[in-house]
Amino acid sequence: MANHAFAFLASSTFCKVPTLSQRPDAPFAAAGLAWDGCVTNRPGARFGPQAIRVASHMLCDATHPLFDTTPLDVLADAGDLALPNTSLVDMRSALEPAAAELIAGHHMVWLGGDHSITLSLLRAYHRRLGRPLAVLHFDAHCDTWSDHFGEPSGHGTWVAEAVEEGLMHADACVQIGIRSAAERAARDYIPDRGGCLFSARDVRGKDGAGLADVIAATHATLTRHGTDTPVYLSFDIDCLDPSFAPGTGTPEPGGLSSSQVLTLLEALCVMPLNWVGMDCVEVSPPYDHAELSSNMAAHIVWTYLCARIAAGAN
Asked: What is the pTM of this model?
């Protein structure tokens, strides 16, 4: 891959762990995808990976208070992939083989970047695993539109494209936090195909034990094709209400709280599912008051890592 060494590529590492070149055998690895060429409103997600990494430095020894474990000894950081930044086609052509190489050796967490990156990541996982994935999708937006404001592909089309390409099981997909304006065909795309959708309104007022039904239904849906089905987590930071995560390109009022999100992740990510990786996307630092969004994103990634380590994953 060509070395597109743009100035915005991150130089620090997540939780100050060694780089992948320093710890090549790390079972877990983080990588940044500093791309925002498909945003439809406010740009800036290309700066997300760096901001998430900086925020993660406040995790100190990174020992999780629930799981009593830390990723510091098993995690490395591959840095930001040096991708083209003006062509979606060229970016995907560069990302997919680079992602495949990392997936072959490590359980990956991907730091976005806008949500268009997830289609390429699912393509890489599908090629590696040879079968469709179940997907847990946190978002304010359904991302099932048939076009991207007149363009064929973007950050609002990846779910529909992944289903149409056979990369994921629509009936083993769970969407949580959906609330944006959308015509019925897009809004109900996943439920119409047998999947599960919990809108922000569905979980309004629920927390702690009140989320038990969401957790149970999510588990049942993700395992619809068997407990060995590979499961991927894609977390758009705009799933959260803008009061918790203002730094994002397309904020939508009425979202989830940070406590709701962490309750769900702490319960689901420790389950003995065949988790294969995750991404956290759409953090836009130029709009991030007091680093609230990047701080939450760091906690989301850290929670996932600690849950998987506590569950004995590698």
From this structure: 0.94
